[in-house]
């Protein structure tokens, strides 16, 4: 598939001397929802800010739909909408004026019908005459999204869109993002909420300490790195692990009623058949058994909490 954003060897060292990005290479596919996942301070906002032309890269380059974001700044910027992490709005403007004005900034002719559509989609229509200062935090965030969409961008960046927002707005936002994808808009969101990446994204990039440590299809990521656990609930508690079961690296629960077997879901043989045979030979009866796939959260934690290298 053709990529809509190409990030090539992008590094960023701030004036303070701090290196926030280390030679990041990344391609975003046209029409996908891409989640950039990483802990606070990983470099997510820095990367987005570079693509949106707010921060200059120290090296490397970025193409947005084939356009160099530095050489052809205006053209690149007109393709892109950004909902920043921090809310910035003019308190005394009305919602309607704020959003319409933003469209004008990109040199697009006025289109009240389009603005109306956007405001309705975001449940802002009833508030169109309200001044920004009269809006709740959640409503302000909706206006930020409307602003970002005002010039009909083909690429939308959402920087921590749901940090601190209520459940309703989060749900509306996810619905809106899916709707945008149906219209062919490419959506890149940053988040440190794993559930958000898990729920929303087609692909996930994990960034940690300025380095992109992984980019994968979400499902493949969960599968590829996922370990499965098999929980065996025993009919009669064990006081210790029988020696013949040692090779399976089982964990015996404290009460002795449960054995946990961890295996790689991708290995040809899981070892489960051997394990069950072994248990049967020892006359250990099972009450129940369940298997569980690692969640993205467990994968993420294992990636991000690697010791400093
Ligand atoms: N203007 C700046 N000057 C110096 N350091 C900065 C600046 N902006 C961000 N940083 C540092 O760069 C790192 C990455 O920040 P940021 O991109 O905001 O991370 P994230 O969005 O993933 O939380 C952090 O350690 C942050 O303190
Ligand atoms: Mg950030």
TrEMBL record:
SUPFAM superfamilies: P-loop containing nucleoside triphosphate hydrolases. It comes from the Bacteria. Residues 5-234 form the ABC transporter domain. This is ABC-2 type transport system ATP-binding protein. One of its GO terms (molecular function) is ATP binding. Pfam families: ABC_tran. The lineage of its organism: Bacteria, Pseudomonadati, Pseudomonadota, Gammaproteobacteria, Oceanospirillales. Keywords: ATP-binding, Coiled coil, Nucleotide-binding, Transport. Transmembrane segments: none annotated. Residues 272-299 form a coiled coil.
